[in-house]
C-alpha cells in the first residue's frame, strides 16, 4: 500500500511500507555501555538535564491524539478515553500512553500559521520563522551546547536513524551539529588492527609531552581545547558500544515492540542513560491526506507501545526528572475531513505533548473550540515552545551565546516561555 | 633570545597617545616603517622581541603560501646568507605560484564562507580569484566585479558572490555590509541595532536599496541562472521597536544619498521584463553600487579591507571581529587603522605589495612569548592614565554633542519626510500610471508592428498571385484558352479576389492598430505630462530631505569617531591598570615572600622552644614522681623502724627490770637457778641492746633517704613550674608567629592570584595590541596542506604524476637535455598533483571548517577530528614509509640525533632541543627493532601536537 499523497513534499517520496520493511538488522554488535549500571546512571542524571524529541514526521493529527473531538463534525470515528489525570482525555489510539499522562502535559493551543512541511519543521525545531540569509542553530545544537558536560566525550546532538553529520548548528559550529546514529559506532572510533593499545598509549604520551612543552611557552584556551579533544576521543573509543542497541536484552526489545520505532526508542533510552543531552527520534509518516484514520490507527499503535515503554522506563529509572520529553510535528492536521478520508496540513490550532524535567506534570495548556477549528484560549506559537523547552531544562532562554565576540540570542527575543508550565 | 623584551618606557612621556598620526611626518619612508612608527608611538608596556628565524619562516610560509615549508626549503633558507634573509624569503614566497592560490582560497573562504556549487562551482570561483590575483587586480576592482556579477560565459565565476546567495536582497545587504564594509548590520533589518549604537536601520536600507531590485532569473532550470534587475522599487522601512517609518535612496555607509537619473516612463528599461528574458534597466542601482565601490573612496570600505588583510597576516584584526567595525569595538590602534586604510588606497588597493609591507613590519615578526618581565614605572603610568581619562572625557563630551546634532537632524529629516510624503505618493501614483501607459503604448506599438508585418506579407503574396494571374491570363489569351490553363486562371482569380478582401481586412486591422497605438501614445504623453507636473512639485522637496539626511549622517559619523576614542581610551586605561596591578603584585611579592620566610623561621624557633621547655617540664615531673615514690618508701621504712625500735626499747626496759629483779632475787636467795636465769637475761638484754643499735642506725639511714627525696620533690616542682612558665611564653610566641605566618601566607596567595590574573590579562591585552604575536589555529586548508607537506605526500604525488606523464607522453632525448622542457614537464606534474591532492584535501577540510554561511574564524576542536587523526586510514597511509617521504627518510637515518633533527625540522620547522632528542632516543630504544613503526608513531605524535595545529 503506497499512500497517494496529494502534495509533493519530500516526506511523500518514501512509501511508508518500504520504511517499515527496512528495519531488520539495523544495529551491529559491541560491548556493554559504560553507564547501564543504574547507580551510575542515577548519579549522572542528578547532574545533567537531557532532551528527547519524538518527531512525528509529516504532521500528526491532534484530533487522533492529544485533542480529540469525538461526536463532532470534525471528530472522526475514534473515541476519547480517560487518562491517569482526572478530566484529561486523549484519543483511544493511545491507551498505553494514557496511563502515563500523569507524568506528561499537553499544549493544545498552538498556532504556527503555517502549512508547509519545510517551514513547519524549521519553526518547531529552530524556534523561529525561517528567514533568508539568517541561520539559527537547531534545538538539538542549542541543547548540546547549553547542556554540554566537559566530562562526557559522547556527541551531544543525535538523530537516531540518520547517517552522516548534519549542518544544523549554524554559528555554534560543527561540534554541535547533529550526528545520525544508525546503530554503528562513530567513524574512526576503533584502533587500527596493527596498533596495540600499549603502543597507542606510548605514542600519545609522546604527543602529550610535546603539548606540555608548547604550553609552557604559551598556553591559550584554544590549545587546551585542542589537546582535550584527543582525550575525549580516547574516552569515546572506550565507550563506542553505547551506540549498539543489540546489547539490550531481548525482553526489552519485546516490550518496545518489534518495529523500527521500537528499536529507535530503546536506542534513545540507551543514549539518554549515557548522558547525551539531545536525542531525536523520528516516526514517519503522518502526512495523511488520504485515509487519515487507517494510517493513524496503525502508526499510533506502533508509537503508543514504544513511547509508553520509554516514558515508563525513564520514570522508573528516575530519569524523567532530568529528561524533557517532547512529542512534536511540523504542524497538525485539518479538522475538516476531505473527500479521501484524509486530513490536510494545518498550523492554526494543534497540539504538542511535553513532560519531564521542569515541566509541570498532568497540565493542559490552552484549548481549542468545540470542533477544534481554532484556538480558544492561551494561543502559543513555536517561539514560545522553544523558550519553554529550554526553560524546562534549566537554560536561560532569554540569554545569548557569545560567538567570537558576537552576541547571539539563544531564542527569539520577542517570545518567551509558557511560564505556568515550568515548575 | 634572552634580551627578549624591548622597553619602550622612555617614549612614554613624550608621545603617549597623541591623537595626530605620525604618518605625515615620514611619508617618504616605506610603509612598513611607518606602521612600526605608528605602533611604537603609542606602545606602552612590554613588547616581545623579534621571533627567531625558523619561527619566522614557518609563519611566512603559512601566511603567504598556505602551508609549512618542506624540509628542503627550510634547509635552503638556513643556508642562505643571514643579511636580509627574511626580506628575501618574503619576496620569494610572494613570487611563488602558491601565493595566488593561497590568496584565492583565503578570499573564497572570506567572501563565500564555504557556500558554492549551487550555480557556480567553488573551484571555478577560486580559479577566477587566482587569475585575478595573478593579474594583480586591485581589490576595489575585484569587489566591484563581484557586485556587478557579469554572468556572461567569460566572467561567470565573478557572479558567485550574488548567485550563490540566490540574489536574495536581505542576505546580500547583510553580506555586502559584512564583507565589504566590515559591519554586521543584520539586526538593523528590523530596527536599529539594540547593542551596537552605530548600526542604524537607515544604513541597512541605504545598502539594501542598491540590491533590492536585483533577483535571480532562471526560467528554465536546465539553463544557467542569470541576474535580472527591475527599474523600480523602493526600500521603505519601519522599526519594530519605535515604529519610525522612512525610506531612503541608495546610500553608501557614512555617505550622503546618491543622486539618480530619472527616465521617462517607457525609457526605464534597456530590456523590459518578460517571461523568458532577464530585464535590464536603463539605470542599474547595482551597477551604481559597483561603481561606488570601484571608486575606492568609502571610509568603511577602505578600513574593512585593510583590516582584513592585517588580520590575515597578524592573526587578528586591529578591529576584531573583522565584521564588527563600530565605536564600541574600537581598533586597537585607531591611528594605525587610519594609516593602513589610507595607504592601502594609496597603493591602488594592490594586495601583494601591501601584504609585503605588512610582512616586513616588526609587528609581524614579533615573538609569541615574553621571556622576561620588565619593571614598570607605576608613577608614570598613573600620569598617563590621568591623561587618557582626560582625553576620554573630552571625546565623550563631543560624542554627546554630535549625537544631539544627529538626533536633531533626524527629527528634521522625519518632519521633511512627512511633509513630502503626500507629494511623493502623488508622484508615485502618476508614475505608476505613466509606467502602465508606457507598457500599453509599447504593447500597442508591438501589435501595430505585427499587423503591419501581416499586411505586408499578405501584400507581397497578393502581388505575386496577381502577377501570376496576369501572366496566366495573358498566356491563356495567347493559347486560346486551353482547358487546363483556364482552370488555373479560374483558381488564381478566386485567390486574387479573396486576397483583395483579406487585404482590405488586414489594412483595416492595421489602421485600427495604428490608431490604437496613436491613442496609447496620446495616453502616455498625457500620463508623462501628469508625471512631470507632479515631479516638478516633488523635486524642490528633495534637497531638504537630502540635506537633513546628510547632516544626520555627518553628525552621526562624527559622534561615532569621537566615541571610538572614548572606548579606546577606556580599554587603554584598563590595560594600564592591569599593568600596574601586575607590577604592584610582582614588586610586593618578593618582600612579602621574604617576610613570610622570616616569620616562618620565628614560628619554627618558637615551636622549638615550646618543645624544649615542655620537655624540661616533663623531665622534672618525671624526676619528681620518682623522688616522691622514693620518699614515700623511705617514710614507710622510718615508720616501721621507729615502731620496731619502740618495741625493742620496751623489751629492753622489761629485760632490764627483770634482770634487776632476777639479780636481786638471786643475791637474796642465792639460788643458782635464778642466778643462771639472770645471766641468761643479761645476755638477752645485751642482744636486744645490740638490735636497738642496729635499728637505730637503719632508721638514721632511712630518715636521711626520706629527707633527700623530699628535697628532690621540692626541687623538681620548682623546676617544673619554671619550665611551665617558659612553655607558656613560648606558646604565646608561637601562636603570634603562626598568626603572622598565616596572614603573610594569605597575602602571598592573594598577590600570586592577583599577579596571575594580571599576567593573563596583560598577555591577552598585549596580544590584542600586537605587543605579542597571537596564537591562532591553522585554517582548515593550512592544516591540511601542512600535513600533506610534512608527511611528504606532496612530493610523493608529484613524483607519481611525473612518472605517469613520462609514460603517457615520453620526452624526446632533445627535450630531456633541455632544462626548459624539463621544468615545463615538472610544472605539469605539479599542477596535476595539486589537482589530485585538492580533492583529497577537500574531505579533510570539511571536517575542520565551520558551517557554510557562518563566520569561518571561530576555532573549534571536535572529537570527530581527533578520531580522524587517531584512527583515520588516510593519516596512516600518509605517514607510512615510502621512498623519500618523511618516514621513509627517517627510516634511513642511523642515529636518534639525526632522526630527531629531520623529524622536528620537517614537522615543527625547528630544531629539536636536547631534551627532545633524548626523548626521541628513548622512544626508539623502547621500540627496539620496530624502528619502522617507531618513526611513524613519532611523526604522528608531532603532526597531531598542538604546536603543529597552531600558528604562533
How would you characterize the overall build of this protein?
The complex is a heterodimer of chains A (423) and B (952). Chain A has 423 residues and is an alpha/beta fold. Chain A has a single domain (10-185, 244-421), classed as Alkaline Phosphatase, subunit A, CATH 3.40.720. Chain A has helices spanning 16-21, 38-47, 95-99, 117-126, 139-146, 197-217, 221-238, 250-256, 260-273, 292-316, 382-392; strands at residues 50-56, 80-82, 89-91, 104-110, 157-160, 179-181, 278-283, 323-328, 332-333, 345-346, 350-355, 364-365, 367-368, 375-377, 400-403, 406-409. In chain A, strands 6-5-7-1-8-11-4-12 form an 8-stranded mixed β-sheet, sandwiched between helices. In chain A, a hairpin with a 2-residue loop joins β15 and β16 (406-409). The longest helix of chain A has 25 residues, at 292-316. Among the domains of chain B are: 166-297, no CATH class; 422-541; 585-764, Orthogonal Bundle (Helix Hairpins); 776-951, no CATH class. Residues 1-25 of chain B have low confidence and may be disordered. Chain B has helices at 9-15, 31-42, 53-65, 71-79, 85-95, 97-112, 122-134, 139-148, 160-163, 169-181, 201-211, 285-295, 299-314, 334-346, 351-360, 378-479, 483-538, 542-669, 672-768, 780-791, 793-808, 813-817, 819-848, 863-871, 873-878, 886-892, 896-907, 914-926, 931-943, 946-949; strands at 5-6, 47-48, 214-217, 226-229, 236-238, 245-247, 269-271, 280-281, 776-777, 950-951. At the A-B interface, α6 and α7 of A face α10, β9, α24, α28 and α29 of B.
What is the compact description of this entry?
Chain A has 423 residues and is of the alpha/beta class. Chain A has helices at 16-21, 38-47, 95-99, 117-126, 139-146, 197-217, 221-238, 250-256, 260-273, 292-316, 382-392; strands spanning 50-56, 80-82, 89-91, 104-110, 157-160, 179-181, 278-283, 323-328, 332-333, 345-346, 350-355, 364-365, 367-368, 375-377, 400-403, 406-409.
